[in-house]
Amino acid sequence: MDGQPASEDRSEAEDRSSHVAVGDAVKDALGSVQSVLVLGGGSDIARATVKALVADRARTVTLAARRPERLDDLALELKEAGATDVRLLTFDADDLDSHPAFVADAFAARDIDLVLLAFGVLGDADRTRVDRRATLDLLHTNVMGSVSVLMPVVERLKAQGHGTIVVLSSVAGERVRKSNFPYGASKAAVDGFCSGLADFLQGSGVHVMVVRPGFVDTKMTAGMDRKPMSTTPEKVADVIVAGLRKGSDTVWAPPPIRWVFAALRHLPRALFRRLDL
Amino acid sequence: MNSESRLLTGWGRTVPTRSDVHRPLAGDDVDAMLKEADDRGAIARGLGRGYGDVAQNAGGRVLDMTSLRRVRSIDLGAGTITVDAGFNLDALMRLIVPLGWFVAVTPGTRHVTVGGAIASDIHGKNHHRDGSFCDHVLSMELRTPAGEHLRLTADDTPDEFWATAGGLGLTGVVTEATLQLLPIETSRIRADTQRCSDLDELMTLMHEEDERYRYSVAWIDCLARGTSMGRAVLSRGEHASLDDLAVDERATALAFDPHTRLAAPPWAPPGLLNRLTVRAFNELWFRKAPRHDIGGLESISWFFHPLDSVSGWNRLYGRTGFVQYQFVVPFGQEDAVRESVRRLSEARTPSFLAVLKRFGPGHGLLSFPMAGWTLALDIPSALPGLARLLDDLDDLVVGANGRVYLAKDSRLRPELLAIMYPELDRWREIRARLDPDAVMCSDLARRLQLV
């Protein structure tokens, strides 16, 4: 005896299809993650972000950097804050051929819920704007390094069926300004790559969130003139955590800078090039 | 064998992950599908009414059991029925109610499978008197990844039975179950409904009078503040006897044909259920309830499953979905209930489905029910500060020796698991015996490090 009245089949099938969600998200319903891989763990924004994630409920943290021994203090701090497993790995963004093996190692022990891509160089604008070698180095690190490590990361996340990639981009990539156009161009490339990647990954369970901070007071920007609407690494971290909770695709720090750059993007070129930005 | 790569979420629509969904058409398919699972493992899934990530398995296999839905045998004298695990309670009730029988335990929706009801050891409004679903499971067939077919009963195989009952699908795949049914004379409920002006009045009333009713549950207005904090509508009932019906209704005493009246739109704005709309709903719901109405006759579907009349109601929460939070604290910890309602009210939590009821003792090693007070609520997941609010409620619940409902969970801190479920280690031992290669796995199991 088939116990299912035929008339019920349709509504039941509809009910099932409604569980197939439209967006992707992180492992916990409220955006909390448990295991984190940080690429470029030494940056101020990465430090602030991983601290915020551990303060929530991240317990397994892998910090990867060119010189991981410099992260001993951060590792200790994270353990004191409740992380049970903190691993330090050597990661050289410029050594592209090492990336597949590095990613395999980072994912060997368990699933990773969140990968934070936080490395990058600002470059000395006065040099990069005229020096071929310096400009290529900057693009190599920021663009080739990011793409090269992201591709195997994406493969791993797709295989595990879930995960979030958080990419530190910059408002500098929204419209490239003359002040440091090689850096701006590198961020524009990464931002564009990741935005397209995010859409390509719809339906895979993997979510990509692009973070566009404005001017952040960090060791990278030390000595530079502070800009209006400048922010701090801690505030960028808060924006990231809030974006994870909401499942955002793109977040800005501070949030209102989004509208400033929306306007700048449409400014006529003749006017834009005269701005001292 | 057919399989399809799909994003799955629970009923709360919060955590989509990708699984390979396989659909067994016979019990033997289950054996093969478990055998061929890779290191990402497998989990069975029914109709997806679990709110969180209990029936999804990122990167691994999900066995959609809903095609296994035959009635194997029925004994109308003894009131027992043997069905496939993918058979659902809606179909079951449509079959047995006209024959004068009812399920011993029904949750708030009929759209759950028997297998899902066992894996979550679900409860209904009669837990204080009748226990949970698995208390009425006479036997079940469990297929393990090792290829065993086990016939489990509470008497002969108590370890395996009570590890599987409420075991979140992690001991194997239940393919068949024999249920003890409850005799009824009519398909109506004789209901007493009354308003309570605050939480203390409600809890006193429930404490003093619950035992006189088979079914009892209270709806609480979590947005009410000040002196009316915790105002509620208490609804209690019994199966109506033939004598309760008017003479001309007795010919159709066992009629049962519930319909879906409305369908939620396929898309709703994320902020639709906010403090204003929920407050308006709650005000209306409270005011529309009679001050005190005794013995009114209600249909089974209206009394037990009012939300089933709106298909896809979960979509009303919009893209970001919602979480369901349910805890239980033992009797004597009434202050924890009061404190939780106070916090929810103070945080102005827009929950239009907050439900309080009293439990009797529970039996499954990971089953949720234990003697005490249980509060359940739906909350939009986008509510600012929600993660912290619920983490703090967890601490309150643990401090009161209580626990949260794992089958509904989507955000618990793993370190609280062993405190909330003291039988966890014993459950793990039995589970390891049934599934030594740890094939059975789910997102919930990974997130809470259950296995």
Describe the protein.
The complex is a heterodimer of chains A (277) and B (451). By secondary structure, chain A is α/β, with parallel strands linked by helices. Chain A has one domain (31-272): Rossmann fold (3-Layer(aba) Sandwich), CATH 3.40.50. Chain A contains 10 helices and 7 strands. Chain A has a 7-stranded parallel β-sheet, sandwiched between helices. In chain A, α8 links the parallel β6 (206-213) and β7 (250-253). With 451 residues, chain B is of the alpha+beta class. Chain B has 2 domains: 66-184, 2-Layer Sandwich (Uridine Diphospho-n-acetylenolpyruvylglucosamine Reductase, domain 3), CATH 3.30.465; 188-412, Alpha-Beta Plaits (2-Layer Sandwich), CATH 3.30.70. In chain B, 25% of the residues lie in helices and 26% in strands. Chain B contains 13 helices and 20 strands. Chain B has helices at residues 27-35, 89-96, 114-119, 127-130, 158-164, 199-209, 275-288, 300-304, 334-346, 386-399, 417-420, 424-434, 443-447, and strands spanning 3-8, 17-22, 42-45, 61-64, 71-75, 80-84, 101-103, 137-143, 149-152, 173-183, 188-196, 215-220, 232-239, 262-263, 292-299, 310-311, 322-330, 354-359, 372-380, 403-404. Chain B has an 8-stranded antiparallel β-sheet with strand order 15-11-13-12-18-19-17-20. In chain B, strands 5, 6, 7, 8, 9 and 10 form a 6-stranded antiparallel β-sheet that branches. Chain B has a 4-stranded mixed β-sheet with strand order 1-2-4-3, with helices on one face. In chain B, α5 (158-164) crosses α12 (424-434) and α9 (334-346) packs antiparallel against α10 (386-399). The mean pLDDT of chain B is 94. Chains A and B meet through α1 and α6 of A and β1, β2, α2, α10 and α13 of B.
